[in-house]
Amino acid sequence: xxxxxxxxxxxxxxxxxxxxxxxxxxxxxxxxxxxxxxxxxxxxxxxxxxxxxxxxxxxxxxxxxxxxxxxxxxxxxxxxxxxxxxxxxxxxxxxxxxxxxxxxxxxxxxxxxxxxxxxxxxxxxxxxxxxxxxxxxxxxxxxxxxxxxxxxxxxxxxxxxxxxxxxxxxxxxxxxxxxxxxxxxxxxxxxxxxxxxxxxxxxxxxxxxxxxxxxxxxxxxxxxxxxxxxxxxxxxxxxxxxxxxxxxxxxxxxxxxxxxxxxxxxxxxxxxxxxxxxxxxxxxxxxxxxxxxxxxxxxxxxxxxxxxxxxxxxxxxxxxxxxxxxxxxxxxxxxxxxxxxxxxxxxxxxxxxxxxxxxxxxxxxxxxxxxxxxxxxxxxxxxxxxxxxxxxxxxxxxxxxxxxxxxxxxxxxxxxxxxxxxxxxxxxxxxxxxxxxxxxxxxxxxxxxxxxxxxxxxxxxxxxxxxxxxxxxxxxxxxxxxxxxxxxxxxxxxxxxxxxxxxxxxxxxxxxxxxxxxxxxxxxxxxxxxxxxxxxxxxxxxxxxxxxxxxxxxxxxxxxxxxxxxxxxxxxxxxxxxxxxxxxxxxxxxxxxxxxxxxxxxxxxxxxxxxxxxxxxxxxxxxxxxxxxxxxxxxxxxxxxxxxxxxxxxxxxxxxxx
Length: 658
Ligand SMILES: [Zn+2]
Known about the structure:
By secondary structure, the chain is of the alpha/beta class.
């Protein structure tokens, strides 16, 4: 039984004009943006911390136009001190068009950033404070879910036939009290007029405050699928904003009262970094002018796409404003999953437009209607490429894989791929660990039988640490595979592949050089041959007679002592401690490993303090793993990484039609 804990808090972020100076009005296209004169309604940061006692995440809704990844990085740096890793942090803007310029796009004159740094630092501080406060009173909660559609309140100004009216509610309750809620809606908060000089959270701010007054708790708003979707009272001012808010609130009230309890499960995070190509020349100019401070690599900006799963609820966090239709395939492929999209989360890279709706004419934004047809708004999109990348990635985030890791010895999988396997398993993929031999000799001062017994217990513990769902021992005598029946071994591996149908196989690489361990070589040969032979119907027909089916392997992640081909790396920064733990848990194997290396050092007349002095093996493993995989990480600009020769569809990929 999974449990879920929740804490929440709310803090005012209305700027103090006297202390902070000029605050630029953000949101509407203009050459010279004005500054704020007054406050209509105060704006807020609302934070929610969720935990299942193993994994903790923080969700923060900020009432502002948008937040770029470099701002998010400042907050992440501060939250790291509280123990949060990047993948646990989700900060999204409500996109109010009546808040401070937090992105720099609305300066007082063309080419000058509109950011007020006093305000910006105040915002970082306040978000961190809100998270700290939310953490202080975490209660065990029940999760309630309701949704509805309010298409009558939105219009699509590009294509009136396409409308998304999704109104979503997640309610977190403890002892019949609302601790927090998260609601999403798809209309852009742009009901204030273009001439407006008063701070306002627009309808999301007003509605959230109404929810908090009526039901208690803290109400976070996430902008849903919002691209090209204006409220019906677009730019009509505060009176209409109140009218609009009342209508949204009255529907939300029904959802609040009718929400149904849903099962919670462990919090599962899938967090991916992508390189977003800046194709639009207007955006390139913003980087050239230094209005955007982010560094580009090859005209690409690094951004993130993530999915959080709690039970059957999937929260997809997107770095821009998503258009209806972009995730049609994902939705079609996952009819049973409960999916919510949050735009402008952890970045704000502009419109994410599906290819069929894309009409790039960035230079004509001043006159955006041509022959009655909408053109030119693509000026707010960085390009077509990024939408395609994100749409494909989101599909992948919903695909759960079976991973089969095969090693001859207890420590092979944990040492070479422990971080990657832990990452894959913690993302909800199924992990099957296969150990080919019994490791009878990998011990110090034990009998053969004691060695076998001891190592089996310890390897099971280690594989469970990296998340194994199943552990299979083939029990060949260790360091003797060269004398084993090769065809029989290959047949056993093919049998397992046909039985478990893995999508990914992780094992030794045939391309490694200078390998002195024959078990590693035979394993590499047998596994890699099994990977393609598993789909040959005439091989090992007895499997098929038994009722199994042929199976083709999609991907192989291959490692080697001295690899010659490396084409793929996995950032294991968040999982390096699990890797260390799993290796350390193989006490007998590690005892022998350090003992053998001490003998080798002595044979070479070397004195190595780490080996000779009485240092616990756990400390030795920690030092070595962090050194070796830290060096690998440096190559890729991350703290720790594992690298592989990845074999997949290869040239077939080029032939595929989407
Ligand atoms: Zn080995």
